Here is the input.
Amino acid sequence: MRVLVTGGAGFIGSHAADLLARSGHEVRLLDSLLAAAHGDGAARPGYLDDHELLVGDVRDPDMLDRALRGVDAVCHQAAMVGLGVGVSDMPDYVSHNDLGAAALLAAMARADVGRLVLASSMVVYGEGRYSCARHGVVRSRPRSPDDLRGGIFDPRCPHCDGLLEPGTVPEDTPTDPRNTYAATKLAQEHLAAAWARDTGGLAVALRYHNVYGPRMPRDTPYAGVASIFRSALARGEAPRVFEDGAQRRDFVHVRDVAAANVAALARDGSGFEAYNVCSGQPHTIGDMAGTLAGIAHGPDPVVTGQFRLGDVRHVVASPKLARDELGFRALIGFDEGMAEFATAPLRD
Ligand code: UD1
Here is the structure.
């Protein structure tokens, strides 16, 4: 297949492009080399030398028409990611992520390209799945600032106010985005589903969990926790763990995420499907900080009790549907992946 990878110069897009090429696909990259991800006046990263790269914006219809020429499928990774700095970021997130997806989908319809893999995120779920000892599976209430200030970090039952136990999130869990980035990722999914219905195309949304690995950008307000801890250790500083460090995430290696993209591109059918892309082996943030610090022989993590209102407590997912329907299974274990990550180069 000839595949256009948007955001192909980025962390996940570049690994997807490498694996697609190694799997026998022809790859073209479209990337605007966004300053927030690549630095001001960014040059073409050296790891792209083997790929055809168009430097341009996914919101630009003319650029899209050029980029889609002769293409069979699109792997849409271009996005503004992370929590950002605040509400002032909202227009930029909506523009890059939602206007960008809409422009891409319209261009795909013009070019008669009927196959899309969309980089989505576990953030569409908001808080993960929880159960209450008295009321069974419930939708958790947003965590209150008073609880967080008082060191109560687990969410509460909407019926009895009791603290909840975390469980595993399947794909049919109701979505509940809790920050701007999450809202724009969910809107992308809805736009892709509308496009698939209208055109008879196939859209596969991959809900990435916490992706880490080589080429991860250095820490910025837009970076994930693994990059923040890794960058702190590289400076000889202790990782600063928020809350009590017991919040759980599923860390999935970027080469596994690339493999999920290749598997999703091979899926048959039409319509819209969403899959968790995760390892199925959750870890706490405290555990991840300790593991990285241990490998890097750095200072021990400091648990600060600080919190960010946009953060969710635990998101632990089921990898079953992706395994059953895409044949995808994460192969790089936490210890092996973190050992490589602790010394792998980050991006400037
Ligand atoms: C992250 C990404 C999100 C992505 C999702 C799935 C960011 C900011 N978030 O969401 O874009 O869609 O994974 O791949 O990139 N923490 C610390 N110390 C710090 C920073 C964070 O302890 O210095 C804690 C946070 O309080 C949180 C956890 O680490 O509990 C994870 O934080 P983070 O990686 O920022 O966000 P996710 O919600 O996991």
In short: The two ends are 32 Å apart (CA to CA).
